[in-house]
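Moderator note: this is an archived Q&A kept for reference. The question asked for a predicted structure of one protein chain; the sequence and the answer are reproduced below.
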Amino acid sequence: MGAMTSDGLPDFNAPPRVLLAAPRGYCAGVDRAIEIVEVALDTYGPPVYVRKQIVHNLHVVRRLEGRGAVFVEELDEVPADAVVVFSAHGVAPEVHREARTRGLRVIDATCPLVTKVHQEARKFAGQGYDIVLVGHDGHEEVVGTMGQAPRAVHLVGDADEARRVEVPDPEKVAYLTQTTLSVDETAGVVDVLRDRFPVLTGPRSDDICYATQNRQTAVKALVEECELVLVIGAENSSNSKRLVEVARDRGRAAHLIAEAAAVDPAWFDGVGTVGVTSGASAPEWLVDELVEALRQRGATEVRELPVVDEDVHFALPGALRRDAEAVRPTEHGG
């Protein structure tokens, strides 16, 4: 890394052109999860406890901590009778049971698209299917989905594992997928499963979420017009890492960065156009900060490359919405 400038960022010569992927950044599930914590803080007052990172982005976590959210790894760190929010990635049923046993007031911020996968897992298991779940071992979403039907689920991470997975009855197999995977790679894994299990059944509609698919589609368009792709997102963000892979699979240099300060000046050597996108849990102000740094260092053209229009919004949980409405009049002296 070279010298730092007055804004605390590395000094470098930026490419003349910056191309912004659209869509990028927050998806409806992340937007909803963050809003749930904010509304819970406004409604019940701090502290509001949150099990795991509400979304996979430390900047978001730090900002919510500043408002009075307390992030914990497990429920035994939450005092009895406290308010606790479950993260957007979802939890296994045993976590709900533990919360009830402890008398905790639960607000479930699980993304509705993850909830759909949970329902499918319970349905297939209830019908006697073995379920092959395509996903990343240890990811919070995968842990939550496997917990819906622990005896029925077999996890595979790639095509090789799909070729080796064993099930008791090859005639009764269903598949599900983590919502934040690579669309192309997952299609290949499912093709392997179909070859092995010709009567394989699956969800009525794709498990990979609309936002994951749209952001990958936008990167595919981006790489046609740039030599380098920067993806703003956290190291533990599955969907952000997939965006890097999508760009690299198409022959472009691509890097995952948490923020503008993580840029390596050497990346820009010989680059005329840099593409910028962000994962579904990365706030837009991180993109703004990077674009401003590129402008200050020589970028003269910044434009957006619109690929897909998104207009998805998920409502807050009913009980939280009602409680929030009930306290609003008193906030205004009513």
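Archived answer notes: The mean pLDDT is 95.
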